Amino acid sequence: HAGLGYGVGWTFLVWGALNGFYQWAGLATRSLWRRAGEALPGVAASRALHVARVLVTFHLIAIAWVFFRAASVGDALTILQRIGARIGEFPGLVARYPFTAEHGFGFAMIGLLVVVEVFDERRSLFERIAAAPVWLRWGVYYLVIFALLLFGRWQATEFIYMQF
């Protein structure tokens, strides 16, 4: 009943229901995935399957977030319908809008996050930093502080849950 007494909208409830359904589906199919992995050990352990699972999870969660941010369930469904209807237009959109430095920076940051995530899978990033020489560790600390100062948002913003 968390949230119901606070006057939340249907969009929030759909968002929560989708996330709950995803959790249930993951648990319900766990043994199926385990048996498939035993039958196809090379495929189940492959990097490609892991990447595919991450991409599917990302897109399912992104769909749920459309409901979280939409003004109404109808608006969310319209947004999702329009996304689906315009997928074929993606190459034309890429050609129509020039690639800018902002885009490049965004893609570079996404790439950096992917690299960090891959390294973190094998050994925690915090463990790696803690084990690094002092000069490198403090260099990382200063780099993080500099990035926060450079890219941080310092103006006041409305707390997102106040919109419900």
Query: Count the strands?
Result: 0
* Cα-atom radius of gyration: 21 Å
Uncertain regions spanning at least 5 consecutive residues: none
Helix content: over 70%
What is the approximate shape? extended
Strand content: under 5%
Main sheet specs: none
* Structural class computed from helices and strand pairing: mainly alpha
Mean pLDDT: 83
User: In DSSP terms, counting alpha (H) and pi (I) runs of 4 or more, how many helices?
Assistant: 9
Q: Could you tell me how far the N terminus lies from the C terminus, measured between alpha carbons in angstroms?
A: 16 Å
What is the quaternary state of this protein? single chain
What is the helix/strand order? HHHHHHHHH
User: What is the number of domains?
Assistant: 2
Secondary structure: elements and pairs:
Elements: H1 10-28, H2 30-39, H3 41-44, H4 47-69, H5 73-85, H6 90-96, H7 101-122, H8 125-131, H9 134-151
Helix pairs in contact: 1-4, 4-5
